[in-house]
Amino acid sequence: MVTIFMNWNQLLSTKRFGMEDYHESRSDDRSEFQRDYDRLIFSSPFRRLQNKTQVFPLPGSVFVHNRLTHSLEVACVGRSLGVNVAHRLQAKGVESPFLSEIGSVISAACLAHDMGNPPFGHSGEKAIATFFSEGNGQQLKQQMSASQWKDITCFEGNANAFRLLTHQFVGRRKGGFALTYSTLAAIVKYPYASIFADEKKQKFGFFESEKNDYKKIATELGIQKSNGNLDRYSRYPLVFLVEAADDICYQIMDIEDAHKLRILSTEKVKDLFLSFFDDHRKKRIEETLLIVTDKNEQIAYLRSSVIGLLIDLCSAMFVEHETQILNGAFNSTLIKLLPEKQAIAYKLCAKTAIEKIYCSPEVLDVELAGYKIILTLLENFVSAVMSPDKAYSKQLLMRIPEQYETSSPTVYGKILSVLDYISGMTDVYALDLYRKITGMSVPTL
Fold first, then answer.
1. For residue 321, is it within any domain?
2. pLDDT for 297 beyond 90
């Protein structure tokens, strides 16, 4: 008999972070997990995602994805994955009072999964990390512990999202967004501290400042320690579905955006998307394409067909490996377990994206500009929090909202306050502030 370490009854909890002792009688039919979704979608940090780059520059004449539209689409795919998995688990005889709410948990987590990303996407993350590992921020190393230094030299949007959602900023309520434990656990793709981050990918799930918060959530939900390691845990099961939703969307939607921007031809995209299907299904799709003559609509139909197929396959993979997942012994992504035909097609999309999209001049130009902007902001604001009594520092610090703890008694706390401020900026706000600080833009009186 196989021993199961995690169980659905404990994993699905409506307990809210920071509101553990507070219970309110409800007069409507929304579940606690649906409340998480609503709370996130009406929040200011979520709205700001509309002005953060996903891959391509923010829209001009052609509207492509930004972080907000990407997050909404990932949430839709995540909900479908969750509903599929819940139905399949119920068919297997799994019983849990909140099993039918898996789709709601995942959709809420998907909404939040990119909320910690700084302006200008991955180039923003890299700029923050390298300011401390290679730039003038190096001088602060001796004033932090090894784990604190690792946090900022490997700055990670995923860990920052967990901080944004759980940290009690000045003047704000305890528990941050006060989301359910299950929704918070579902966004932590890398459930370990930065000291365990892979040297190449440098991914981790929580900063030193939120270490005990994640421990509290893991203990409540029964998430196991990984091989008994301190500050390293097995993945919360629903993380695999949040990850799959993101993998499905960014890979397929980036291809569609490239078609709209004429980086990829209609025929090229058709070939990429049709390669996911067997001959029978391909024939049916091609018959439908004869009815739809608009090229963009043809690609949209193909994209929806591919996403639908991947949702079904990933749902099946999750349920097939449920025991391993609950035991913390599943060490793959669901996308990597696709059947051979779909795996080959997905890899071909990834290869095309790397060669034709992510290295395109439009994308590289945004990354280069973003890198310079973030470095300049860091240079000025880190100097200001470290020398707050200087005249120019006082002026700069007046720009930082009071909710950020710039007067923290520790160097680590001061630096995190700057990172909280900068990472919350939109691309447009960061650019505008950069121009003002450098004197490129002077307000008219």
1. yes
2. yes
Whether residue 341 is found in the same domain as residue 421? no
Identify which of 237, 216, 246 has the alpha carbon closest to the alpha carbon of residue 105. Answer: 237
CB 381 within 8 A of CB 400: yes
Write out the residue range of the structural domain in which residue 164 sits. 31-221
Say if residue 23's pLDDT is above 70: no
Q: Measuring CA to CA, how many Å separate 236 from each of 5, 139, 222, 305, 331? A: 12, 37, 9, 29, 12
Report residue 153 as tokens: 């030299």
HSE-up of residue 418 (Cα within 13 Å, Cβ side):
28
- Stretch 177-201: mean pLDDT, rounded? 92
Q: Are residues 279 and 211 in the same domain?
A: no
Half-sphere exposure (CA, 13 Å, Cβ side) for 295?
A: 12
Is the model's pLDDT at 289 over the cut of 60? yes
CATH number at residue 171: 1.10.3210.10
Q: Measured at the alpha carbon of residue 86, what is the angle toward residues 84 and 88, in degrees to the nearest 5?
A: 70
Residues 125/424/50/31 CA torsion (nearest 10 deg): 110
pLDDT band at 263 (very low <50, low <70, confident <90, very high): confident
Whether residue 59 is predicted with pLDDT greater than 90 in this model: the reply is no
pLDDT score for 200: 77
